[in-house]
Write a structure and sequence with these properties.
CATH topology of the largest domain: Purple Acid Phosphatase, chain A, domain 2
Helix content: under 10%
CATH architecture of the largest domain: 4-Layer Sandwich
Strand content: 35-45%
Number of strands: 40
Mean pLDDT: 88
Number of helices: 8
Distance between the termini: 77 Å
Structural class: mainly beta
Low-confidence stretches: 1-27, 572-585
Length: about 675
């Protein structure tokens, strides 16, 4: 039996009952292979380096670790080690995915938790390291830290040939070192602060010829369409190298028009006009003589009164769940998809394929998708390069008319992250607020039978009535005043629906983000504002518009219907009450002095008689007082709150009338 040893260190753990693999440099056979198709987790040993819980499991032929276990600057977290396999010289190849942006890696010549080599990578921290850990001390052998790692999915190859260690990423050499501190041990995977680790397969060879990197112009983002109207379409695709942009398009694949854009690009876009309504067109794209397969789309009818669209969001992180959700789309006829934001986990990375485009490949070449920008897209140019929205002036908020309906997408990330300066404001007087009010009061919106609004951050959630006060203070009054029928959002991973003042609020954030499960039942209590529970469940929604009727349905990851509602705009009192709200002046609500010491005065003006409620909440959204709960006449009113002897801090006061809802922040100081 061959022994493995460490140079100048003491072994604290003795390896027992191991299959020792003696490999000569001339041997070129495959010596180990695992594709994680079967229940093989018992053949691996989980070793957590910190006092926390890891979560390794098998899922859809992938080895997965989805906990956030990790520790500080040491980059220690959790390891999973192949049992009964010791190696000295070898080539290891594996396909791995890091949908989160912290550390993922490979350990090799692993002896125990204090002695091994490892390769680790973090896209967020711009670190690609080759390290050794000897007697519990980690040291750096080589590094690549020049730029962010842009791939979510990539092939990693590690060669260990005596004291020569090399790491290849996508078959390109990134790291190398000469070191003989550890001459043999096992292999495994590691994770630190990363809740999105996926390992597809692993192969180990006695020796292996690394292939040359493939830098051809083959499309890595397949062609897809945007802004499909009855007379125009935008076709987009991406290539690995800068190349030309050509589209062949016609009524069949034998007779077509050739449209070419000059210049070499990675992200390709061609706008096509003068199409005929309700007509099927075939197309394919060319870049540097490399052609895609033929695709097709059908332009919509001229001003259709009947159409269907799907709604979902938060597809980041778990692409396996996104695949399953998207797989259900094939069971439904629909015209386009609306996405509520957070398409991917880290928008700065160029690779949006794994999490977003690949699961939707069967649809996006034929059906357009309209996307609200989410907080995980950060301030990345990729959102603007990968999507062509109807408004070129500001692509993060836009509107369009489809059939008898008005659609408006806006950017309310600042409601959840008010300290992020590059998120545009939604407060009254801001450019986006002014645009939003102008759009909702426009002729197109006024004449629309239905108004659908889409954003990432929800206005209401059952854990708190004011979890995002800027939404309830600035957006909700606009929705109610101008008769928005549905407000769709994401961000809080799960499903929720409710109605307030004739506005239907839907959270459809179950496309793949961490948190939901496949089926959890109704585990949360109903939202007191919307009277509907929040479900931590993967989900998507379908909206069918048929003239004056909307049929809404929600489905789980199995394709089973979990919720439904039908709204008829001709029903007595529905649209009439909305029109009355539109035509009324807005009520008002304010407080002074603010900040205050021992007393604050709330002033409010009603444009019509109404029941009035004023409640006080703390920063956790818990109600701590009810100041008013009675019927008021039209006109100005005030109420005084005496806070002598009460703790200082930040509080929220909410005024609710029949047609008005406003929340203001008040600060008690000493």
């Amino acid at each position: 039996m061959r022994k493995y040893f460490l140079t100048n260190i003491v072994l604290p753990v003795v390896w027992l009952l191991c299959l020792i693999v003696n490999i000569s440099a001339q041997d070129s056979t495959l010596i180990f292979e695992e594709d994680f198709d079967n229940d093989v987790l018992s053949e691996w040993q989980i070793i957590d380096d910190v006092n926390d819980n890891s979560n390794w499991f098998l899922d859809e032929s992938h080895l997965v670790q989805d906990s956030n276990i990790g520790q500080g600057s040491s980059q220690l977290g959790t390891n999973i080690i192949k049992k009964d396999l010791l190696l000295d010289n070898f080539t290891l190849r594996t396909k791995m995915y890091s949908t989160d942006d912290d550390y993922i890696g490979i350990v090799f010549r692993y002896v125990d938790s204090d002695n091994y080599y490892r390769f680790i990578l973090s896209s967020q921290r711009k670190r690609i390291y080759l390290q050794k850990r000897v007697n519990g001390v980690t040291s750096l052998l080589d590094s690549f830290t020049d730029e962010e790692w842009h791939y979510v999915g990539f092939t990693t190859t590690i060669t260990a040939d005596n004291n020569n260690l090399k790491v290849y990423l996508n078959d390109e050499l990134y790291l190398e070192a000469q070191d003989n501190s550890i001459t043999g041990g096992s292999i495994g995977f590691m994770s630190c602060y990363n809740n999105g680790n996926f390992f597809d397969w692993i192969k180990i060879y006695s020796s292996f010829q690394i292939p040359e990197p493939d830098y051809n112009a083959a499309s890595y983002r397949l062609p897809y369409i945007q802004n499909l109207t009855d007379s125009s379409v935008v076709i987009l695709w991406g290539t690995n190298t800068a190349s030309n942009s050509i589209v062949h398009i016609g009524l069949d694949t034998n007779s077509y028009q050739i449209i070419e854009e000059s210049g070499a690009n990675f992200n390709h876009q061609i706008d096509i006009e003068n199409l005929e309504p309700y007509t099927k067109y075939y197309y394919r794209v060319y870049s540097d003589a490399t052609a895609s397969d033929w695709k097709y789309f059908r332009t919509p009818k001229l001003n259709p009164d009947e159409f269907t669209f799907l709604v979902y969001g938060d597809t980041q992180n778990n692409f396996l769940r996104h695949r399953e959700i998207a797989g259900n789309f094939a069971d439904h006829e629909f015209d386009f998809i609306a996405h509520c934001g957070d398409a991917v986990q880290r928008g700065i990375r160029n690779d949006w394929n794994v999490e977003f485009f690949d699961p939707l490949n069967d649809y996006l070449s034929e059906k357009p998708i309209y996307v609200a920008i989410g907080n995980h897209q950060l301030n990345s140019q990729n959102f603007y390069d990968y999507f062509e929205t109807p408004n070129e002036e500001h692509e993060n908020y836009y509107s369009f008319t489809y059939g008898n309906s008005f659609f408006i997408f806006f950017d309310n990330r600042s409601a959840a992250y008010p300290d992020v300066t590059y998120y545009p404001s939604i407060k009254e007087g801001s450019p986006q607020y002014t645009w939003l009010e102008n759009q909702l009061s426009s002729t197109q919106a006024e004449e629309a039978e239905w108004i659908f609004a889409f954003s990432h951050v929800p206005s209401y959630h059952n854990f708190s009535l004011n979890v995002y006060p800027d939404n309830t203070q600035y957006l909700v009054p606009l929705f109610e005043q101008y008769g928005v029928d549905f407000s769709f959002s994401g961000h809080l991973h799960g499903y929720e629906r409710g109605i307030r003042n004739n506005v239907n609020y839907v959270t459809a954030a179950g496309g793949g983000g961490i948190g939901p499960v496949k089926d959890d039942g109704f585990s949360d209590p109903p939202n007191p504002l919307t009277n509907y529970p929040f479900r931590r469940i993967y989900n998507f929604c379908k909206v069918e518009v048929k003239n004056s009727k909307v049929s809404f349905s929600a489905y789980d990851i199995f394709g089973d219907k979990i919720d439904s509602k039908i709204i008829d705009s001709t029903a007595t009192g529905i649209k009439e009450s909305l029109n009355n709200i539109k035509n009324n002046l807005k009520d008002s609500f304010g407080a002074y002095p603010n900040p205050y010491n021992s007393e604050v005065i709330f002033e409010y003006e009603l444009t019509a008689p109404s029941n009035v409620s004023i409640k006080l909440f703390n920063v956790l959204g818990q109600q701590i007082d009810k100041l008013v709960n009675s019927y008021h006449k039209k006109g100005k009113h005030k109420v005084v709150l005496n806070t002598v002897g009460k703790s200082s801090g930040v509080f929220f006061a909410q005024l609710v009338t029949q047609n008005f809802n406003k929340t203001i922040k008040i600060i008690q100081s000493k």
